Give the backbone structure.
Amino acid sequence: MISGDLLKYNLETKKFIFWDLESNGLHLHYTRPFEISYLLYQGNRFQKEKQIFLKYPDYKIRPEIAKHTHYDKNKIDEIGIDPKSGLQDVLSYLLDPEYHIVFSNGLNYDCMVFHNSCKELGLECGYSWLPRCYDINALFKGMKLGRKVDNDNLLAYQLSCNNVVQKGLKSNLQYMAKEFNIEIEAETDQFHGALFDSKITSQIFFELIKKIDVK
């Protein structure tokens, strides 16, 4: 019997925010984002996209990280906004119980960087929104490992899958996009740009949920 509770069968009733951030490092406590971008969807119908650049008084980023993440100081000086305002924008959706939150490897990185950044700026973020998260990195790994989705403990299931390190088990965006035949320009250097990665994440997610029984 087909379960109508599965996401693949009641997609149109759901609201989603797909988001990603780019930052100046990998340290979960001290790293701060300079770009946060998101897409809003009703079911699989696109509603809105937004690219936010955060302008700090004194932002330090190593040249090799700046190149990898497409950091452009001139652009940020021109159109960057107050970090607190930018974080509040995204936070309004994360705290909205109507929205399901989708990212790639966000449970291991983005959500912690975001939380600590909010805390530093006096914003009440918390982690109450984590049970509404879908991490495509974790769900894809679970599928490849042959693990049945534990919908009663989805957050714990995803955290467990995210932490699996196994030879031959790949789950980066480029690999997942190729797995689902999502066309990417062969010479593109747009990966690790928050808006571009959010768009690829959305395409992967809608293909991935066809393959797994996730609620």
Observations:
- Strands lie at 15-23, 33-42, 45-53, 99-103, 133-135.
- Residues 115 and 125 are 6 Å apart (CA to CA).
- The first helix runs from residue 63 to 68.
